[in-house]
Amino acid sequence: MANKLNNFDAVVVGAGFSGLYMLYRLREAGFSTRVFEAGEGVGGTWYWNRYPGARCDSESIYYNYTFSEELYKEWTWSSRYPEQPEILKYLNFVADKFKLRPDIQFKTRITGAQYDEDQNNWQIQLDDGTTVTAKYFITGVGCLSAANLPNFKGLENFKGERYHTGHWPHEKVDFTGKRVGIIGTGSSGVQAIPVIAEEAGHLTVFQRTPQYSAPARNHPYAPEYIRQSKENFNEIKKQMRESQGGQPVPIPTKSALEVSKEERERVYNDAWENGGLGIFSSYYDITINEAANETAAEFIRSKICEIVKKPEMAQKLLPSYYYGTKRPIIDTNYYETFNRDNVSLVDVKSSPIVEITQKGIKTTEAEYELDAIVLATGFDGMTGPLLKMDIRGKDGVSLKEKWMGGAQTRTYLGVAKAGFPNFFMITGPESPSVLSNMPVSIEQHVEWIGDCIEYLRENGMETIEANVDAEEAWSQHCREVAEATLFTKTDSWYTGANIPGKPRRFLIYLGGVGAYRQKCDEIAEKGYEGFTMKPSKKPVP
Ligand code: NAP
Predict the structure, then answer these.
(1) Ligand 1 touching residue 337 (CB < 6 A)
(2) What region, left, alpha or beta, does residue 467 occupy, with left being phi > 0 and alpha being psi -120 to 50 degrees?
(3) How much is the pLDDT for 159?
(4) How far is the CA of 291 from the centre of ligand 1 (A)?
(5) How far away, in angstroms, is 490 Cα from ligand 1 center?
(6) How far lies 141's CA from each of 12, 107, 200, 382, in Å?
(7) CB atoms within 10 A of CB 129
(8) What is the position in ligand 1's atom list of the atom closest to the CA of 165?
(9) Residue 283: closest CA among 254, 319, 261, 257
(10) What is the rounded CA–CA span in Å between residue 152 and residue 283?
(11) How is 445-510 classified by DSSP, letter by letter?
(12) SS3 string of 54-109?
């Protein structure tokens, strides 16, 4: 530890994209800041998710910080969708460039934090048994950092190797010649399956819900393309910040139903050939109108039937939920992998997993003997990482109690919580978060929080706290926007339906990052409307 302080202006949880920038932003403004990080290095999600095939699915020239033009111009991405090691390298480069490490305490987990109303500060417990205090407590824990380990009967009895994609070992896992089973076909599974299949003796995929996926068509970037993106830094940054999803793509203006079938097929085909998430953003009504959605869904199903040679296998891979209402996936050779002789597919919706045995996975129909099991079973999203810590606001009431375990999750702007003064959540529930290009939403929150804390200092304010009525109105607005879409109709981690017993709630603001930024800025310009501030007893320096 570079400094031995245990009383800080701000404590930040996590050293991923959020925590690194929050540290930089506050430190530049002169606030003593300490980041606590459970891992041994920086990177957050890119530190933990090291499974084979892990890569970004936002285009790399947009999947980075834009707060520093110098940083943007110094770093050069190798390809359109780089692999996890390259993104981790980028975050290490950022930590080195801005000399962030001395203010980060690694291998330390924050277990709880209580607001002390007498002292107007946060008492923060670390897993090494010590307590530190801070005026501001800020979470940068991400939305997908609490792994979902399903409660399979007998999981601990399995004699072979067992991995979760979200906690992958740092050293290479060698599957050569082994019988591998993978449970889960979300983004992680879809990325890992083709890579593991190339190495394993045999790969058995245990699929509960078939997925829509489009080819990524990753490719190296031409030097000229990189040069242009660096030259156009300011324009790219502006477009990203004003956009719907955090990428500089035009907001679609046409309905999928107002164009001819031929025109639609051409648009979907072009998007498919171009690779990436183009189909999702082809028409404005894909996620709000069932018939429009079906056009995209049917297009992808037809592609699956084209690619997968064995008709019986293709049938099992055909999804039926509303396209895009689970996180849209992009892949490299996912459906093609099911043409391999060493890959088999087990539908665990029709024949569920009943037990993990010493030898492998047993479904209602058969037992599959395995040397290794990969759990690509996802995360307890949105509230999971926050509720893993015992965060208590005024009167000792915990976030878990306030949110009734997730049944009544309410925030103001997804960044603050009534009853929790001087507490901020970066990309918290009810902000655009995971339905946007994350670095863009992270930067917006970090800058808004940084500005707010500077405002408090300049105006001699000791505390800021969201008002209950403002929170209620924001929450209701989020729900109304979500209810007008198809997102709430699908079982997904977006709705919490992936975690048995978790209350069903859709906790992502769907109004778009541009509109959301404008709203947050307006609130700040009106002197933090919807918040109550209390003046400091000390004189303003
Ligand atoms: P996920 O999307 O939640 O997928 C989990 C998979 O495990 C699903 O197929 C799910 O089936 C299955 N599953 C869960 N519990 C099961 C059980 N008890 N029995 C059988 N199957 C079970 O998780 P993920 O793939 O880790 O992805 C989570 C999110 O992380 C993504 O949506 C994305 O936002 C992010 N991510 C991003 C990238 C990227 O940027 N490239 C890569 C990986 C992850 P059901 O669908 O039936 O629930």
Answers:
(1) no
(2) beta
(3) 98
(4) 26
(5) 14
(6) 9, 15, 34, 10
(7) 7
(8) 26
(9) 254
(10) 40
(11) HHHHHHHHHHHHHHTTEEEEEE-HHHHHHHHHHHHHHHHTSSGGGS-STTTTTTSTTPPP---B--
(12) CECCCCCCCCCCCCCHHHHHHCCCCECCCEHHHHHHHHHHHHHHCCCHHHEECCCC
| Token couple for 45 | 């999600």
Ligand 1 atom having least distance to the Cα of 151 = 18
CA of 416 to the centre of ligand 1 (A): 28
* pLDDT(66) > 50: yes
What tokens appear for 201 in the block?
Answer: 């003796």
- The verdict on the CB of residue 35 being under 6 Å from ligand 1 is no
Q: How far is the CA of 230 from the centre of ligand 1 (A)?
A: 34
d(CA 402, CA 76): 45
Ligand 1 centre from 217 Cα, in Å? 21
Q: pLDDT value at position 405?
A: 85
Asked if residue 209 has its Cβ within 6 Å of ligand 1, the reply is: yes
**pLDDT band at 3, cuts 50/70/90?**
very low
Tell me the backbone φ, ψ of residue 341, rounded to 5 degrees: -70, -25
Handedness of CA 412, 414, 419, 424 (dihedral sign): negative
Ligand 1 contact via 389 beta carbon (within 6 Å): no
pLDDT band at 539 (very low <50, low <70, confident <90, very high): low
Contact indicator for 393, 403 with CB cutoff of 8 Å = no
d(CA 433, ligand 1 centre) in Å = 17
pLDDT digits (tens, 9 = 90+) for 444-479: 999 999 999 999 999 999 999 999 999 999 999 999
Query: Measured from the CB, is residue 150 less than 6 Å from ligand 1?
Result: yes
**Across 302-319, average pLDDT:** 98
Any ligand 1 atom below 6 A from CB of 325 = no
pLDDT of residue 406: 86
